């Protein structure tokens, strides 16, 4: 099982380095998936596959660089696939959109990506938003997803969290201001917070983010 492998990943990394195992070369390419071109990274040549799902604003290389480099040595029977979700990383265009069902859309795109790469079955590693996408993907395509490992993700919103969301207007504004001061603009766009507002009642009316 994948979960057993990653529980001892630190020791396995060290063992691989001591043995001088050469990492397989990663291939980066784009492929048409329905109406968008998806950028993906592929490394290894195993018959089984593991799909890496990055978090919000992330890409395969920014969120899973070490895994792309080392997993082929640890899992020689796997092909490792990392993707940039539509509107993130090098999967631009399109401009990132945040309809209420954007996690479901990402799950369907990710599944079709694996189908287009000729993987009928695969496992998933999901971080943050990628973990949410992974949970939906496993539920929508149970015959395809063999294993699911996620972290930094939430499956539901508890009553206490709703209280926090409803009181965080000033915090949202402060985050955007600090980002703009540091970078000249904020990557946290008004459209992103509009979606949060519809999903979890986070006030967004006065946010001025200009990203995406």
From TrEMBL:
InterPro entries the UniProt entry points to: AB_hydrolase_1, AB_hydrolase_fold
Q: What is this protein called?
A: AB hydrolase-1 domain-containing protein
> Where is the AB hydrolase-1 domain positioned along the sequence?
49-204
Q: Which residues form the signal peptide?
A: none
Q: Which SUPFAM superfamilies match?
A: alpha/beta-Hydrolases
**Which Pfam families does the entry link to?**
Abhydrolase_1
User: Recorded GO terms, molecular function?
Assistant: serine hydrolase activity
């Amino acid at each position: 099982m994948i979960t057993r492998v990653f529980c001892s990943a630190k020791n396995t990394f060290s063992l691989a380095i001591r043995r001088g195992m050469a990492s397989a070369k990663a291939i980066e390419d784009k492929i048409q998936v329905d109406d968008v071109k998806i950028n993906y990274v592929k490394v290894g040549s195993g018959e089984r596959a593991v799909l890496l799902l990055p978090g919000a604003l992330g890409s395969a290389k920014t969120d899973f660089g070490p895994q792309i480099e080392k997993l082929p040595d640890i899992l020689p029977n796997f092909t490792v696939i990392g993707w940039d979700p539509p509107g993130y990383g090098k999967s631009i265009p399109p401009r990132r959109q945040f309809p209420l069902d954007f996690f479901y859309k990402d799950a369907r795109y990710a599944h079709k990506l694996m189908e287009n790469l000729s993987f009928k079955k695969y496992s998933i590693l999901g971080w943050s938003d990628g973990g949410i996408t992974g949970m939906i993907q496993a539920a929508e395509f149970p015959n395809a997803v063999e294993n699911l490992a996620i972290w930094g993700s939430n499956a539901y919103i508890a009553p206490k969290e709703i209280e926090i969301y409803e009181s965080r207007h000033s915090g949202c504004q402060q985050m955007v201001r600090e980002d703009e001061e540091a970078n000249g603009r904020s990557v946290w766009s008004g459209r992103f917070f509009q979606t949060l507002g519809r999903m979890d009642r986070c006030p967004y009316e006065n946010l001025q983010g200009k990203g995406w």
